[in-house]
């Protein structure tokens, strides 16, 4: 039986990004040994989209109120890297991780599966 999913973010500054997940986003975690942190994520869902290009994977964090979440993140000094845009499926933006990578955030305007 499948009991969960495991997302891997590759980072050029893994320690700083782990600290961001723990201290800024408040994700609880466990030490898998030697300071290797693994974080509990909010409920998740997976979608499969068609593509004509090479297959790829994306990771987004979902928010119930994107504008309120951005206010909280900005108050903690987090850089918002994209203006909020309205897509057919939701409100979309991204924030800067300490490593320099972007982490997309969105507020879905579609039915969600994560609480089924």
Query: What structural class do helix, strand and pairing data support?
Result: alpha+beta
Terminus-to-terminus distance: 17 Å
| Number of DSSP strand runs | 6
Strand count, sense and barrel status of the largest sheet are:
4 strands, mixed
Q: Name the shape in a single word.
A: globular
Average pLDDT score: 95
Q: State the fourth-level CATH superfamily.
A: 2,3-Dihydroxybiphenyl 1,2-Dioxygenase, domain 1
CATH topology: 2,3-Dihydroxybiphenyl 1,2-Dioxygenase, domain 1
Beta-strand residue fraction:
25-35%
Question: How much helix is in the residues?
Answer: 10-25%
Tally the structural domains.
1
The residue ranges in which pLDDT falls below 50 over 5 or more consecutive positions are none
**Side-by-side strand order of the widest sheet:** 3-6-5-4
Element-level helix/strand string: HEEEHEEE
Radius of gyration: 15 Å
Task: Please count the helical segments.
Answer: 2
In the CATH scheme, the class would be Alpha Beta
Write the CATH architecture name: Roll
Protein name: VOC domain-containing protein
Organism: Streptomyces albospinus
Pfam family, one: Glyoxalase
InterPro entries: Glyas_Bleomycin-R_OHBP_Dase, Glyas_Fos-R_dOase_dom, VOC_core
């Amino acid at each position: 039986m499948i009991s969960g999913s495991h997302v891997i973010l590759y980072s050029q500054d893994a320690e700083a990004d782990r600290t961001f997940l723990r201290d800024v986003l408040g994700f609880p975690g466990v030490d898998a040994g030697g300071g290797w942190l693994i974080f509990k994520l909010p409920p998740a869902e997976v979608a499969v989209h068609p593509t004509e290009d090479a297959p790829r994977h994306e990771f987004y964090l979902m928010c119930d109120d994107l504008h309120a979440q951005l206010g909280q993140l900005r108050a903690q000094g987090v850089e918002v890297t994209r203006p909020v845009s309205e897509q057919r499926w939701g409100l979309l933006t991204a924030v800067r991780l300490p490593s320099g990578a972007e982490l997309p955030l969105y507020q879905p305007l579609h039915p969600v599966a994560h609480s089924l």
